[in-house]
User: Fold this.
Amino acid sequence: MPAEDLPGAFITVEGGDGAGKTTLARSLTECLRQAGRVVQMTFEPGGTALGTRLRSLVLDPDLTMSDWDETWLFLAARASHVQEVLIPALTAGEIVLSDRYSDSTLAYQGFGRGLDLERLSSLNRAATQGLTPDLTLLLDIPAELGLARARARSSQADRIGDADLAFHGRVNAGFRMLAAEQPERVCVIDGRQDAAAVLDEALEVVNRWLDGRRARS
Ligand SMILES: Nc1ncnc2c1ncn2[C@@H]1O[C@H](COP(=O)(O)OP(=O)(O)OP(=O)(O)O)[C@@H](O)[C@H]1O
Ligand SMILES: [Mg+2]
Assistant:
């Protein structure tokens, strides 16, 4: 079920650790609401009670788990998020803005951990019931800068965020490859810009997409 079959608009924000996803998702939500649109902001892993519990497990630095165990936890969180939050909001015609979604699995567990991309794509399809974003905003910044920002923000240990720089470099390169494969869905925004410039660029892309859809329908 592509999101285009539902009346709402499904937008995801993706990118490596500290790229500015949460900052952008919040400001974009506020701007769209000020323009009179109904927006639900949500995030992964999380967005449901089960997802929040799974998030704390998957990020817990005191737990060790295999790369596949990690993947299953993310997929379980995604499946409940899709069923409980995304499909109902999109069915109700809302704009749904999700801070991370399926591309993060391909970038982190696929390009970062080295798990098979075809298999991950097929598991993503199963967990999401085929729900694909209408539009994805990819914040692209060098891994060093993202990690420095994330660490300046919080000193809390994080099992995935604390992985080495080479891992985060592969994740970022993976996101860029995913964007290059699907340029009609994924829009790359230079995350090195200040937050206001990132927001302006994102707003332009989102408004253009929303206007284009209105024209088509
Ligand atoms: N464009 C920007 N320029 C400079 N600093 C920024 C910018 N965007 C966000 N920040 C700051 O960088 C830090 C990380 O931003 P944010 O939490 O939005 O990133 P994130 O991509 O959501 O990170 P995570 O992957 O850890 O969830 C925050 O302290 C935030 O205030
Ligand atoms: Mg965040």
Remarks:
- Strands lie at 9-15, 39-43, 95-99, 135-140, 186-190.
- The first strand starts at residue 9 and ends at 15.
- The CA atoms of residues 43 and 102 lie 11 Å apart.
- The mean pLDDT is 95.
